[in-house]
Amino acid sequence: xxxxxxxxxxxxxxxxxxxxxxxxxxxxxTPDTADAAGVRVYLKEFLSDAxxxxxQGLIWKAVLNGIILRSRPRTKALDYQKIWNVEKNESPLKxxxxxxxxxxxxxxxxxxxxxxxxxxRYGNPSIKAGIDAxxxxxxxxxxxxxxxxxxxxxxxxxxxxxxxxxxxSLRSQPTLRVTPPYYEDEAYIEALAVSIETHxxxxxxxxxxxxxxxxxxxxxxxxxxxPYQRQCIATTQALRRRLGxxxxxxxxTFQSRFGNDEWLQPYTDKTMERLAKEGVRRIAVVTPGFSAxxxxxxxxxxxxxxEIFRHNGGEQFSAIPCLNDSDPGMDVIRTLxxxxxxxxx
Length: 345
Hints:
Blueprint: E1 20-30, H1 36-47, H2 58-83, H3 92-107, E2 114-123, H4 127-136, E3 139-146, H5 153-168, E4 175-178, H6 186-201, E5 209-215, H7 219-223, H8 228-243, E6 250-255, H9 268-277, E7 282-286, H10 295-311, E8 316-319, H11 327-340
Parallel strand pairs: 1-2, 1-3, 3-4, 5-6, 5-7, 7-8
Helix pairs in contact: 1-2, 6-8, 6-11, 9-10
């Protein structure tokens, strides 16, 4: 006769602690100081990136080191000084990105195992410093968040390049995810539309049209397959549908060209000049390709292009702020991050 042994009560299974997850917000970058020395360091790193200037041959290196880095830092430093956050002694881009990270951390505070930090592709805090900090806090998984709505090799891809370079130096690597571009994401388009409508409702004048200005790119990069132009067009078309505007009321342009090559057109500055000469007197400009206000929005658009418009006969000009760390802007970042963290939290 077989005797059954009495069952022994199993000890409660110890649940492993949930691995920490890091979220790293990453923007383009900024000089550490608003003087020629600080700008020179920043420009050298930026313009030495083969994703930004693809031909890094001897001729370019001679031009960069012999001409550009000798003269341009002085003039660009003056531009940075016009917009510099004197109180914190830093650029607005750094101030805003830090705030975005802080607000995202607060929004995710009910998830104690999620750690949020921020970094810049060029300048400080570096991507390496951000990843090191997350690993030091026990993060075994990291979500990299390039803060570019539209993908381009010279922005999104170079962020990934640098993240991969940092991970390549590690023996024990965290698991990595990267958020995709969000150029026609419903939350992003809605946030842009609300931002525009709120801004226009508080203006003392009614713009005759709105210009959507995106950062420029050499046309050759698009010819080689970069999807950036297509995604900028998609953003603008989605925004037109949401606002009930056509291409005569919401124009698409490209700013910030550099060098002698042909860049994506129409150019923002030439459009400002043309519109004013054609009799347009009141306009507003929105910059949907920037997640935070920076030199290109606060100085190039709000000051330089405003002056071009007025100099050629325009009268009233308004630059619409980026989404920044506003409630609609943070809704976009939070939605994007939570979507990409599924399965991790």
